Amino acid sequence: MPEYDHPATESLTLLGVLRGLADPIRLEIVFHLGSVPEATCASLLGSRPRSSMSHHFQVLRESGLLRTRIQGVQHFNSLRRADLDFRFPGLMDAVLAARPHEASAGTL
Amino acid sequence: MPEYDHPATESLTLLGVLRGLADPIRLEIVFHLGSVPEATCASLLGSRPRSSMSHHFQVLRESGLLRTRIQGVQHFNSLRRADLDFRFPGLMDAVLAARPHEASAGTL
């Protein structure tokens, strides 16, 4: 069964995580995943084109923010909360707590 | 006396702050300013060209991370800790705590 590569927890960098978060669509995906155990790519796409979203999912995986597991034809995405909390204590708490303040222009 | 514009605390956005932080040079400036009350532009330049650094200082000001006050011919920069802590509790604590983990390639 194919699998995605995910960086090891100890190799995550703050700069990489910040870059992963510094985009409105990716931040919205992270906000959404902060409130659910996992979500399919389809449910996260909204009305956006799949092609542009693939890039965002890849950036989120490579920065260590997101884990994707494949089950059959479905891709399930989850936030790597435990890994992120271990590596950068308090960072995701602070980011996710800011969700109500941010105007959401998307469909998630 | 000329002054720089600084966005009001209530207008700061998480996305703007994350974008401000998501660059190795800007993150290094923020790390440095996290450990001192304020610093002159000259002391933050290191060996980098002034032209490219002006852009980074502008991004940091516009995102609400940095305040620049002008005194004579000197520009003094400080982190807007109180404003950032009020707007995004815990965010800067988490970012600055990660400093020892990040390899520094710069001169700051």
Automatic annotation (TrEMBL), chains A, B:
<dbReference type="InterPro" id="IPR036390">
    <property type="entry name" value="WH_DNA-bd_sf"/>
</dbReference>
<feature type="domain" description="HTH arsR-type">
    <location>
        <begin position="16"/>
        <end position="93"/>
    </location>
</feature>
<dbReference type="InterPro" id="IPR001845">
    <property type="entry name" value="HTH_ArsR_DNA-bd_dom"/>
</dbReference>
<dbReference type="GO" id="GO:0003700">
    <property type="term" value="F:DNA-binding transcription factor activity"/>
</dbReference>
<protein>
    <submittedName>
        <fullName>Transcriptional regulator</fullName>
    </submittedName>
</protein>
<dbReference type="InterPro" id="IPR011991">
    <property type="entry name" value="ArsR-like_HTH"/>
</dbReference>
<dbReference type="InterPro" id="IPR036388">
    <property type="entry name" value="WH-like_DNA-bd_sf"/>
</dbReference>
